[in-house]
Amino acid sequence: MKDREVVDVGANIGDSPIYFAIRGAKKVLAFEPLPSVYQVALENVKLNNLENVITLINAGVGSKDGVIKVPSTIDLDKSGVFHVTGEGDVEVPVYSLKRIREMVKDTYLLKMDCEGCEADVILNSEEMDFEKIIFEHHASLTHVPYKRLTRKLEEEGYACDKPWQILVDPNRVGVITCEKRR
Q1: Strand 54-57 to 27-31 pairing
Q2: pTM for the complete prediction?
Q3: N or C: which end of the chain has fewer CB within 10 A?
Q4: Which InterPro entries does this entry report, sorted A to Z (predicted)?
């Protein structure tokens, strides 16, 4: 990823954008919809002096531009398992993948850990057009089997893999890596 651009959907407290920047990414565009978690991510990026590499955006991501309601505060210990349902006391924008692709020059890596938005993005967005995609699927939240997501990506020219085993039923949640076939 050295000197490449990364899009991080579900930045949480900023740990993954910081990882990508430290590994040499030229630019990281990171999205986090929960305002209180986004604020912690901003502080973590500043703490690591990476403001010139990482751009954090307080927004959700979906197949279409829009707005969604989220809670203004959330317990950080629960932020990694929080599913955005559209209920809350503050509105944040939702960026479409098409809009995000217009914000980057180099569509190298798309990372999604967004507690369910991955199904909407993969199934309903126009051509993905990233060299690599890493996502955590949440079939237990979306009721979309991960094989349906990988089948869609394979139809778009990706080779997908479930790189490791976990003790949780892989049909409920898991990480998938995909790479565009040459």
Answers
A1: parallel
A2: 0.90
A3: C
A4: FkbM_mtfrase, SAM-dependent_MTase, SAM-dependent_MTases_sf
Q: What is the side-by-side order of every strand in the sheet holding 66-70?
A: 60-62, 90-96, 66-70
Alpha-carbon span 157 to 159, nearest angstrom: 7
Angle between helices 146-155 and 117-124 (to 10 degrees): 30
User: DSSP label at 82?
Assistant: P
Structure confidence by residue, pLDDT tens digits, 59-106: 999 999 999 988 877 766 554 444 455 567 889 999 999 999 999 999
- 43: nearest Cα among 82, 17, 7: 17
Domain that holds residue 52: 5-180
How far does Cα 142 stand from its chain's mean position? 15
Q: What are phi and psi of 38, to 5 degrees?
A: -55, -40
User: CA–CA separation, 32 vs 100, rounded Å?
Assistant: 14
On whether the CB atoms of residues 94 and 117 are closer than 8 A, the answer is no
H or E segment to which residue 159 belongs:
strand 158-161
The pair of structure tokens assigned to 93 is 């924008």
- What does the pLDDT look like over 118-159, one tens digit per residue? 999 999 998 788 999 999 988 888 899 999 999 999 999 999
Q: Is 1 helix (H, G, I), strand (E, B) or coil?
A: coil
Tell me how far apart the alpha carbons of residues 180 and 182 are, in angstroms, rounded to a whole number: 6
The total number of structural domains in the chain stands at 1
| Contact present, 60 and 84 (Cβ < 8 Å) | yes
